[in-house]
Amino acid sequence: MAGVFYTTPSEKCTKYWALSGAWIAFGILIAIVNNRLHRPAFILNGTGAVMIGLIFQWYGIRAFYKRPPQKWGWLICVAFVAVLALLFMLGANFQQRAILVSCTVLILLGLSLHAIWRGQKGWPKTFVQTLVFGAIVLLMTGNVLRIAIASLQLVGTLPMERSSFEIVVAYMIPTVGTVLFSIGLLLLYFERTVEENRHLATHDELSKLLNRRAIVSAGEYSLASATRLGHELTIAFIDIDMFKYFNDKFGHAAGDTVIQEVAAILQQTCRTIDLVGRYGGEEFLIILPGVSRDDAALVGQRLVDAVRQYRFLGTHPVTISAGLTTLPKTEVCSWDNLVRRADAALYEAKGLGRNRYAA
Question: The whole model's pTM is what?
Answer without folding.
Answer: 0.72
